[in-house]
Structure to design on (312 residues):
């Protein structure tokens, strides 16, 4: 994969395009608003690519509603699917997907890109684009899946701290700093399927925005997964396969592609992936406080125990 940035100017003065890499998928983003496009250049700088696009997204940005009106609308809106067309009931966005050309066109309110909004439109859009392109490219056999998690590289290996929203992923990233490792992302990661050669699973950064400033297009072998639990103490507990399987399932981002309506098929994909990952990787529960030193002492002790397991 190339890391070279590509920005193409269209025929219109405010028609800007960039290609963004998400694992093996390249997504072309076109926007007709320079403010929005400028924010993309900053947010996705480490993920810009010159690879051929697997899917394209064309956004027409309209500026009709205030931030307060958009926030009020988000409290009651719902997305209504009509085949490959989607419309928000409050008209904050409407979109249509051209299956043959793998092209999504969307008309969207500018205030939906406000970084202060809890609703992160681009996070959802990029996740959907990734799974939609994977469905076409790999015929449903996804090479990797998105997981709610914070990833930190230590000594060349990735630790995955998985948890629901507001449970501590960003806190872990902030407690890491530069002293205890390299943060890949604090909100979402790509976790690969087990390799056929019995090699380690791999973790890769994605252009998803969380609460931490750093997002890296980095890849590393997966050491272990720690399921977070905020507590008044710091402790690590090894999880058995069944508990790990059930808890990890809840952190996998639904692999729904545009036009997907079979909920049973989605559940089967999530369950199968959780089974594969928990069979190949050690899982732990990590209770932690806001005290940095005990946290990383516990993590370091865990890493040393894993090294001993590998040797024996």
């Amino acid at each position: 994969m190339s890391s070279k940035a590509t920005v193409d100017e269209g025929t219109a003065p405010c028609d800007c395009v960039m290609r963004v890499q998400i694992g093996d998928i390249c997504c072309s983003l076109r926007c007709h608003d320079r403010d929005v496009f400028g924010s993309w250049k900053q947010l996705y700088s480490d993920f810009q690519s010159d690879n051929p696009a697997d899917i394209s997204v064309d956004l027409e940005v309209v500026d009709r509603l205030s931030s307060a009106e958009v926030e009020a609308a988000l409290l009651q809106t719902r997305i209504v699917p009509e085949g490959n067309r989607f419309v928000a009931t409050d008209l904050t966005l409407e979109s249509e997907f051209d299956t043959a050309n793998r092209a999504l066109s969307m008309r969207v309110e500018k205030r939906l890109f406000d970084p202060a909004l809890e609703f992160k439109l681009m996070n959802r859009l990029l996740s959907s684009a990734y799974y939609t392109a994977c469905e076409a490219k790999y015929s449903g056999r996804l090479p990797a899946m998105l997981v709610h998690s914070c990833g930190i590289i230590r000594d060349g290996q990735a630790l995955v701290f998985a948890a629901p929203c507001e449970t501590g992923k960003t806190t872990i990233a902030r407690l890491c700093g530069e002293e205890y490792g390299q943060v890949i992302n604090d909100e979402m990661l790509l976790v690969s399927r087990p390799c056929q050669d019995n090699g380690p699973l791999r973790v890769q950064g994605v252009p998803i925005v969380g609460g931490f400033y750093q997002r890296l297009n980095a890849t590393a072998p997966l050491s272990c997964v720690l399921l977070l639990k905020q507590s008044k103490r710091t402790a690590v507990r090894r999880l058995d396969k069944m508990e790990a399987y059930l808890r990890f399932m809840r952190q996998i981002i639904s692999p729904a592609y545009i036009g997907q309506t079979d909920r049973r098929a989605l559940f089967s994909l999530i369950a199968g992936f959780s089974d594969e990952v928990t069979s190949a990787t050690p899982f732990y529960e990590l209770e932690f406080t806001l005290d940095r030193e005990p946290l990383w002492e516990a993590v370091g002790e865990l890493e040393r125990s894993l090294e001993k397991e590998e040797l024996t």
Remarks:
- The chain is about 30% helix and 30% strand.
